[in-house]
Amino acid sequence: MPHLSDLWSEIRQERQDVVFLAVDAGDPPEVIREWWEEEGFTLTPVMQEGYTVSEAFGVQAYPTNYILGPDGRVLWRRVGFAPGTEEEMRKVLASTAR
Amino acid sequence: MIPFLLLSLSLLPGQEPEAPAPPGLARYRACVERFASAQALELRGLLEFRQSAGEGEPKTLGYDIDLRAFRGPSGRMELRAPEMDMHLTMVGDGENVYLLDHEEKTAMIFGEDFSTLAEIAPLDPFQAWADDAPAEPGEIEVLESPPGLPLLTGLRYRSSDGLETLWLAPNDRLVAASLEMGEDGSMRLDLVLTGSRILDQADPAAFAAEVPHDYTLQESRDVQTDFEAALLAIGEKAPDFEVRTLDGEVITLADLEGKTVLLNFWFRH
């Protein structure tokens, strides 16, 4: 989350056409709020009904990241956050810059 | 000679070791504490991992080992101990349990029978370990060493700085495991066991060269690949979805049309 938050802090300066959503799976809102306040994360935490969104996206392990293009198609996805994941994200995000 | 190093039933609660804890001890203790409250899942299977002793091709080994696996209420469990930089996610699929270590960026697969988990975990076998362990990291005392006996069922192995290895008797019980892989391909596999005897200190070269006696090489699966196979395909149209901000604002994918959307699926507890 810290990496993603930093990435978002950077990207949002340059891109009005990019949205980051941190889709929580199963935490109570107060837990999310507390963590966000503690850490000062910049990206938006959102909640899903049950695990509906996780399931619709086939997510079985956390974290999993997706990047969807402007047409709603999957551009990239990755399970886990390894060294290099952030760099991949940057490249994919850059590919949709107009 | 102490035949059962890791399991001691006569410990006093709150007893702290005087000597510096061996590397990873705090991690193990935290693992056991968290595991004690986990829902157990009866599984039999293999411990599979890739290992590299630093030279040559990484090898994939499979051990048919007594191993504990865990399953949370929704088929997964998260273990967090921020003060120890521990963040693990375990996901069970009814056959295997997948353990992702978010701090170490590693993953492993295992399955097993762990019917006695709840009885073992609260005993904190690591206290005995801490008390008996040599103060210097990497120096594991050789307590018993019957050369040539085919007793190996597990190991504790560190390939980066120094080496610690346990050769274990067949009836040992594993209560926790962690696997770290370095970017250079080095691996550290830590197994926490009860009823264990340290039989010998392994020579890393010998370990790397062959599958231990009585064990056969098993097919291994790449956990990353398995999980990614379940995801939407590249190029696939994402289904519309509805999420809600903490303030109750509803966001759908349709609302975001024309935008590039990064979705980070996560959970805290």
How would you explain this protein's 3D organization?
- The complex is a heterodimer of chains A (98) and B (269).
- By secondary structure, chain A is an alpha+beta fold.
- Chain A has a single domain (2-95), classed as 3-Layer(aba) Sandwich (Glutaredoxin).
- Helix content of chain A is 41%, strand content 23%.
- Chain A is built from 4 helices and 4 strands; from the N terminus they run H-E-H-E-H-E-E-H.
- Chain A has a two-stranded parallel sheet with strand order 1-2.
- In chain A, a hairpin with a 5-residue loop joins strand 3 (64-68) and strand 4 (74-79).
- The longest helix of chain A has 13 residues, at 2-14.
- The mean pLDDT of chain A is 90.
- Chain B has helices at residues 25-36, 117-120, 126-132, 204-209, 223-229, and strands at residues 46-51, 59-64, 76-81, 86-92, 97-101, 106-110, 157-158, 173-181, 187-194, 242-245, 250-252, 260-266.
- Chain B has one domain.
- A 4-stranded antiparallel beta sheet of chain B has the order 3-4-5-6, with helices on one face. In chain B, strands 7-9-8 form a 3-stranded antiparallel beta sheet, with helices on one face.
- Helix content of chain B is 13%, strand content 25%.
- Chain B is an alpha+beta fold and 269 residues long.
- Chain B is globular.
- Chain B has 5 helices and 12 strands.
- At the A-B interface, strand 1, helix 2, strand 2, helix 3 and strand 3 of A face helix 5, strand 10 and strand 12 of B.
- Strand 1 (18-24) of chain A pairs parallel with strand 12 of chain B.
